[in-house]
Amino acid sequence: MKIKRRLILSFVAPLMIFISSMGLILRDNTRKIFYFPLGLMGISIILEKDIKRRLDRKNIFKKIKSLQNNK
User: Fold this and answer.
1) Could you report the per-residue pLDDT of 10-66, keeping only the tens digit for each?
2) What's this model's pTM, rounded to 2 decimal places?
3) For 40, what's the count of Cα atoms within 13 Å in the CB-facing half-sphere?
4) Which domain holds residue 60?
5) Cα–Cα 20 to 30 A to 2, which of 25, 27, 50, 67?
């Protein structure tokens, strides 16, 4: 069965944040710095999806309004 790429990415970002938080909690002080980039990448993936979704919705709404005004 083929797994869609979007489905995988939707699980990867929260997993990255979870691994980062667990690493920050359970590791000693010298190794905690290595988990910050992982958490930041997970947060940036989620924020990017949210911003893209909002922009897409806004563009669709503008298209619908312009079609309604043309009638």
Assistant:
1) 788 999 999 999 998 988 888 888 889 999 999 998 999 889 999 999 999 999 998
2) 0.73
3) 5
4) 5-70
5) 50
